[in-house]
Each structure stands twice: as structure tokens, then as C-alpha cells.
Specification:
Length: 373
């Protein structure tokens, strides 16, 4: 039977309970068997909801969607090597976070929740705000005071209430937990339904490759919303007998905030204290990722690796990608910088998949600053 399961104490909850965390404060995952009726899927609209049987929603009538997903998988040359890049910067709100928000807000509607709270350094807040606007659900987004002005405007234009919290990203997370005692927490890191949206990245990639798994995927990691979602997705396809292997996961962090890179490379037991400097890749600057252990385990089990990129590499890669005619934000360029690094040692016949995570138009101030440097 499909259920929410605590990763710490193994307590189980039904899928129609309004819980985002176990009573023991453990993280919840969803124990869910995903069917893939391939012939039916092929006949449907080209959106992420073509895999609806594999998404843990009880009633299709609750789906909140802008017909998003099934983004182009485009061949892009990196140092002469061919990499297949999902153009996830083309989502309705300008980042792949819409995958998670569409499923999570659909679930919120299914639960009959009227108001949610969420905290974000930008893109997740934009995505939750947009889908709540469509669903007519009240939404309060907690952000650190210094979040990009463009993202703050976007959140407010969707009609969400903005709560600016002084101090660090962690202070914002603390403030929202207080609010979450009263309202449903539509968190992109705690709430397992978000990951059952981001997993559609894996479904689309495999379908676009003719229902085959790539050899390698290169993905960014802050909270790991895409990395873990993709890992769940590939595992579900493997479990259903659709693909015959999990791709190697190459996880990209920014040198200035690389707690999981350090855990992996130095074999640490715990996430180290990070003295976070100002980080160009604001979207992946997470000092204490709550799903850190799961992320490390996913990368290890996939026989993958971690790469850390510095601000200079990110800027060079950003300029290089834009010269090719794609407009992405600096955080997205941390992933492309990671691709540049990885292809130096890839095999000639390796199928490598990655993505553009966010649109450049979201961070105009930062783009202007880099241009003028
Ligand atoms: C959210 C996001 C990421 C990845 O961050 P996670 O914290 O691992 O989920 C990467 N790029 C952009 C543009 C993002 O918005
Ligand atoms: Zn528990």
C-alpha cells in the first residue's frame, strides 16, 4: 500500500494525512509503487503529467498544472564533447522547481489545505507562489532579506505574501518552522511530494532517449531537490523494468559552500560547519542540507562523484553558455561549470545528460554586475 514513511523511526502515515514531518522530527519519504503504462503515456500531451500513474496523487481532478515539462533535451558541445542538456530554464516560472511545485500544490489542494508557508532563497518560492495562485491557495513565502530583487518581485506579482527575514538563510528556515506550527509547510526540502515532482526529470530523460537510461547525469546540489528526485525517478524506472541501470550521478557544489562535497571526499560522519562566504551560485548555497545523508547515499549507490566549482569557473561557463545563445542564471552556470570539468575525463561513447536549472532573466542585477566586471 502507498504510504508516507519516516526515514528515522519507520512510522507510517496515510497519503491523505496533512503531515510533512514525523512526530519524531524525522524526514518522510513516500513508499510508492510506480506503474508506467508506456503505450498510454505515448499518446498523451507532452507535459510532466503524462506520467500521472507514477505520481502519488489520489485523484487526477486535483492536478494544478500549466502544461509544464517535457522540456527539450538538446545537444550542446562542452569542450568538443556532446552533452544532452534539458532546457529546464524554460519552465513557466523560469526554473525546474515547477516540477516539484506542480505535484506539491496539487497534493495541497487534495488535502483541502487553504494556506501554506514556504521558505526559499528564490526559485522554489516563485514556483510555489505561482501554483498556489492557480489553485487559489493562500501562500506566505519566507525569504532572506538579501534575496534577488527580481525573484522577490515575481513572488509578489503571483499574489503571495512575502516575509523578509533578517540574517542568514538558516534564520529564515527557523522563522518558517514557527509558522509551520499553524499552517501547512509546503517545503521543497522537507515535503516528500516535492521530490515526486522533480523525479519527472528522470522519466522525461529516459523517454527522450527511447526508454533508456543515460550513462551519467550531472546535477547541482544544495538541498538536493533535483538530485534526489532524479535518483528516486531512475530507481522507479529500474524497479518497473523500464531501464536496466541507474546512471552515475555527478553532484556539483560551489567551492564557497560545499558541505556535501567535503563529507563525500573526506569521508566525514557529519556535515561540517561551513563558514559561508558570499556565494555567486545563491541557489545552491545550503550550509546544512537536511537530506544530506540521503544525497550522499544516492551518489555513492550510483557509483557517482562530487565536483566543486569556484566562482571564476562559474562566470567563465556562464559567458560561454550565453555565447551559444542560451540565457541562464549564475546558479545554473555552476552545473555547466561542473560539466566542463567532468567532460575532461569522460569516455568518448558515454551518454551524458545535464540541465539548465534557471533562467537568466530572473537575476538581471547579477548579470549586469558580471557583465561590467
Ligand atoms: C533550486 C536550484 C538548484 C538546485 O538546488 P537544490 O538546493 O539542490 O534543490 C539549482 N539551480 C537553480 C537555478 C535552482 O533554483
Ligand atoms: Zn519518525
Amino acid at each position: 500500500m502507498d504510504r508516507l514513511v519516516c526515514t528515522k523511526c519507520n512510522e507510517k502515515f496515510s497519503l491523505d494525512e496533512k503531515v510533512w514531518q514525523c512526530k519524531c522530527e524525522g524526514l518522510l519519504d513516500i513508499d510508492f509503487k510506480s506503474p508506467f503504462p508506456v503505450d498510454k503515456i505515448k499518446g498523451r500531451k507532452l507535459t510532466m503529467w503524462r506520467y500521472k500513474e507514477a505520481i502519488p496523487l489520489l485523484d487526477d481532478r486535483n492536478i494544478i498544472s500549466f502544461d509544464e515539462g517535457f522540456t527539450p533535451l538538446t545537444d550542446v558541445a562542452f569542450n568538443g564533447k556532446s552533452v544532452l542538456v534539458k532546457q529546464d530554464h524554460l519552465f513557466p516560472t523560469g526554473s525546474y522547481k515547477d516540477r516539484g511545485a506542480s505535484v506539491l500544490v496539487s497534493k495541497v489542494r487534495e488535502l483541502g489545505v487553504r494556506k501554506v508557508v514556504e521558505d526559499s532563497s528564490g526559485n522554489a518560492g516563485c514556483a510555489i507562489a505561482a501554483y498556489c495562485a492557480k489553485a487559489k491557495i493562500d501562500c506566505e513565502i519566507y525569504v532572506p532579506e538579501d534575496t534577488s530583487a527580481g525573484k522577490l518581485a515575481q513572488i509578489q506579482f503571483y499574489g503571495a505574501k512575502l516575509k523578509k527575514i533578517p540574517g542568514s538563510r538558516e534564520d529564515t528556515a527557523h522563522a518558517v518552522l514557527k509558522a509551520a506550527e499553524e499552517y501547512y509547510y509546503a517545503s521543497h526540502s522537507w515535503n516528500p511530494f516535492f521530490f515526486h515532482g522533480t523525479k519527472t526529470f528522470a522519466f522525461e530523460v529516459c523517454e527522450q532517449l527511447g526508454w533508456k537510461s543515460p550513462d551519467t547525469v550531472i546535477l547541482p546540489v544544495g538541498n538536493g531537490t533535483l538530485l534526489l528526485g532524479a535518483y528516486f525517478g531512475f530507481n522507479e524506472l529500474l524497479g518497473a523494468g523500464i531501464i536496466d541501470k541507474i546512471p552515475r550521478i555527478i553532484a556539483i557544489q560551489s567551492v564557497n559552500c560545499a558541505p556535501l562535497y567535503r563529507v563525500f571526499k573526506e569521508n566525514l560522519e557529519e556535515i561540517p560547519e561551513i563558514d559561508k562566504k558570499s556565494v555567486l551560485a545563491e541557489g545552491i548555497a545550503i550550509a546544512k542540507p537536511i537530506r544530506g545523508k540521503q544525497i550522499i547515499e544516492a551518489v555513492k549507490k550510483s557509483n557517482g562523484d562530487f565536483i566543486a566549482v569556484d566562482d571564476w569557473e562559474i562566470k567563465e561557463s556562464l559567458k560561454d553558455i550565453c555565447k551559444k545563445g542560451f540565457y541562464i542564471e549564475p546558479t545554473a552556470a555552476s552545473t555547466t561549470a561542473g560539466i566542463n570539468n567532468y567532460v575532461r575525463r569522460s569516455n568518448p561513447d558515454e551518454t551524458i545528460v545535464s540541465l539548465f536549472t534557471g533562467h537568466g532573466l530572473k537575476t538581471t542585477e547579477k548579470m549586469v554586475k558580471i557583465l561590467n566586471e
